[in-house]
Amino acid sequence: MRLAGRVAIVTGAGGGLGRSHALLLSRLGARVVVNDMNAEAAAKVAREVTDAGGEAIGFAGSVTDEARVGEMATVAMDAWGRVDILVNNAGILRDRSFAKMTMAEFREVIDVHLIGAAICTKAVWETMRAQRYGRVVMTTSSSGLFGNFGQANYGAAKMALVGLMQTLALEGEKYGIRVNCLAPTAATAMLDGLIPAETAERLAPEFVSPGLLALVGEDAPTRAILCAGAGHFARSNVTLTHGAYVGGGAGAADRVVAGWSEISDRTGEIVPEHGFAQMERELASGPAAAVKAKAANG
Predict the structure, then answer these.
(1) How many CB atoms lie within 10 A of CB 92?
(2) Are 218 and 5 in contact (CB under 8 A)?
(3) Are 30 and 6 in contact (CB under 8 A)?
(4) How far apart are CA 267 and CA 264, in angstroms?
(5) Contact at 8 Å (CB) between 272 and 278?
(6) Distance CA 96, CA 152 (A)
(7) How far is 160 from 235, CA to CA, in rounded Å?
(8) Which residue, among 61, 70, 59, 150, has the nearest Cα to 109 in the 3D structure?
């Protein structure tokens, strides 16, 4: 019961990955608000939790509806007096090559994944700040981290969630709020008919959800991207190479091209602690530093 006494909200939890998350969090001792667009699906998963001896409330509503999401946060507070964990899991697919994709399809996916996650996080942020404790999980994807054909809208939304996570982790740190990303590979309804049955079995959502404990427990990290699927777990990082100083003025563009190998060299790359790290490195690599480095290398 690692999460005994904690209160969790899981969005898009009426089936698939969200359901698996809700059931796991309950088994770990958390009381869970099961959110889904489908009221019947949310209620069914909530009953699964209570039938297994846990506590849960089913709540129907779209994550894009600010008023409804606000009501969901209020329901959790009225029932249990706090909100400790938010798992932003709700999502949709509108796959199509960018050439054939409409802007309406692009906006719809951004609205659910990115804006929906922001709305839900905003609804519990002040509560977490006041109680000086919170765990937020954004659901990113390999489509955003690395790209996938036909998923420009989905990939853009998923990578945007990494940026949201990076900043909220910094803003929440002094309040005990830790914000991380989960990049799952799971055979959910969104992949129905797209992968063989044998592969779907190996990619069951239940092989992803165990990674949640590391992201929402007492000793959770912050600003981590955890990739999970088929029982395998790995970390992904946004890194910065050491780079090269080429200066400005005439010929600078050609020097960037000529120095591309050095600029791209991943030896000694870092995971910046904040966005200003890029500027700090750039300012520290001026002409004097370049001369010094050249002298040191003979």
Answers:
(1) 16
(2) no
(3) yes
(4) 9
(5) yes
(6) 8
(7) 18
(8) 150
Provide the angle, in degrees to the nearest 10, between the axes of the packed helices 152-172 and 103-110: 30
CATH fold group of domain 7-236: Rossmann fold (3.40.50)
d(CA 4, CA 239): 36
The DSSP bridge pattern shows strands 134-139 and 7-10 to be unpaired
Residue type, 204: A
pLDDT tens track for 157-181: 999 999 999 999 999 999 999 999 9
Instruction: Cite the active site residues.
Output: 154
Report which secondary-structure segment, H or E, holds 135: strand 134-139
Residue whose entry in the numeric block shows the structure tokens 């050609």 = 254
In the chain, where the domains are located: 7-236, 252-296
Give the burial class of 190: count Cβ atoms within 10 A of its Cβ; 0-12 exposed, 13-18 middle, 19 or more buried: middle
Side chain identity at 161, as an amino acid letter?
A: L
* pLDDT tens-digit map of 179-213: 999 999 988 665 666 667 777 788 899 999 999 99
Q: Which residues pair with 132 in a beta bridge?
A: none
DSSP assignment string, 169-207: HHHHGGGTEEEEEEEE----GGGTTTS-HHHHHHT-GGG
